[in-house]
Design goal:
289 residues, Ferritin, three-stranded mixed beta sheet, 3 strands, 46% helix, Ferritin-like, Ferritin-like_SF, metal-binding, manganese
Amino acid sequence: MFSHVKDLQFEAKPDGPDAAFARRLQEILGGKWGEMTVANQYLFQGWNCRLPGKYKDLLLDVGTEEMGHVEMIATMITRLLDNAPLSLGEAAEENPMVGVIYGGSNPAHFIHGGGGALPVDSAGVPWNGAFLTASGNLMADFQLNATAEAQGRLQVARLFHMTDDPGVKQMLRFLLARDTMHQNMWLAAVEQLKEDGLEELPVPDAFPDSAELTEQFGYTYLDFSDGSDASEGRWATGSAPDGRGRFRYDGSPRAHAPEPVLPPGDPRLYSTNPAATRGPGNKTANKPS
């Protein structure tokens, strides 16, 4: 059950209008790594979670908080659009430089949204539910969630340097602070899964009958680049993070299977076959001799 509290989690009020920056702010609302994505991703992961208790609560708590961030950013965008010029002539009357700002605005904010936020990214591309991942495997999902927070934080940090508005900057500072918590939280949740014995790396664990292949390929770094710079990396030597093997470095990877030779295709599909003798309905004409 959800309920809506009219108060915002944090203030979302700019010091003045800026339609051009409102367009940029759309990225952290309706972009691939925006708040609409993480809010729905965490909620769907929570609704799909088969473990009652702390993990399900974690997902639903953070998903609910992120929905509040959606409201904050949408409110900020709407306020940035207040009193924005609707035409170039109107913009130039006030200040010739305002025309430049007008040119950077998103017409859809006024034509579609009536001066309000939209479920789109900064390029106007609609938000897509395909951005979400809710796999049912908590280890896989928590690692992706940490990535999502890192990408979202990166975009907020970049936007921070694209505005001089003190009110906007203060809201972005708050979002950065919460993203700091969420990044650390998901990484801690990964460790909690290990401590609880629920999931381990890799995700999922190797098949029981693949021990030989795991031994041969599971911890070997294959260097396909010129030189051997990659051999200096942590991923090429020493113990693997899963604690089950040790990294090896292979500077001259070789093939383990011959060149594939495919048999002729069904002539009814009209593929280009080697030495093909075509004929209507002739299913045997392309059999190799």
